[in-house]
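TASK: fixed-backbone design
INPUT:
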């Protein structure tokens, strides 16, 4: 069972020889406030690291007949941080979208009033643009990175930062505990190099374990599905 915010702070402070708090959220103790702030910095550290599988969401929306499909925060409401490459599809036409294309390529296409056989997308002003203009009601899906690293079981809500003593971390307990330990020592002017090394090692191990090894193929490897005739592998009657 995942440790709560309170349990994480209690365990780390116990190891550091500090007083054990009975609550974290809403505490007026400067030391506890600092611990909560450091754990929120930990979340920000995770955001710039990689795509964590626990924070990948699948987004879905139905198109409107316009270039601008609306705000990303509306289309992908769970703490949108960025689209995962090569996952954006029009499920109605079964075509993969190309993008996000560069501003130069986008404006050139708009100026020439031209578009290729593969639809394009671009993110601008925190909104999603599609070209050519889609048919209303077409279904689009993609995977995206979320900033929600904290889960609150008391209200069954995911969020970016710690809010309640009962909140838990979606990437497990070891990482926030290791981060809090070295970061607290750094703030106090103590030697923290070894604890920082251990934290970085934990991040590296966690990253490796989240990756699924690809099967080595001698025929060129897996290919992205594109328009064409798909022939299933297997035995065929002669």
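OUTPUT:
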């Amino acid at each position: 069972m995942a440790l709560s915010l309170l349990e994480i702070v209690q365990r780390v402070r116990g190891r550091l020889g500090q007083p054990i708090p009975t609550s974290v959220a809403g505490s007026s103790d400067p030391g506890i406030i600092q611990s909560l702030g450091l754990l929120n910095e930990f979340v920000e550290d995770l955001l710039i690291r990689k795509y964590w599988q626990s924070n990948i969401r699948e987004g879905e929306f139905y198109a409107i007949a316009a270039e601008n499909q609306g705000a990303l925060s509306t289309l992908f409401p769970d703490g949108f941080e960025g689209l995962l490459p090569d996952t954006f599809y029009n499920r109605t036409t079964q075509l993969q979208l190309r993008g996000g294309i560069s501003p130069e390529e986008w404006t050139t296409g708009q100026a020439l009033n031209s578009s290729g056989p593969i639809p394009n997308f671009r993110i601008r002003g925190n909104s999603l643009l599609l070209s050519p203009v889609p048919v209303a009601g077409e279904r689009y899906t993609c995977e995206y990175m979320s900033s929600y690293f904290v889960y609150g079981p008391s209200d069954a809500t995911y969020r970016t930062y710690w809010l309640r003593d009962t909140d838990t971390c979606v990437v497990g307990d070891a990482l926030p505990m290791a981060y809090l330990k070295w970061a607290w020592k750094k703030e106090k002017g103590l030697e923290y190099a070894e604890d920082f090394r251990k934290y970085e090692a934990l991040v590296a191990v966690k990253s490796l374990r989240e990756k699924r090894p690809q099967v080595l193929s001698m025929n060129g490897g897996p290919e992205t599905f594109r328009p064409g005739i798909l022939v299933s592998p297997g035995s065929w009657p002669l």
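COMMENT: The longest strand covers residues 139-146.
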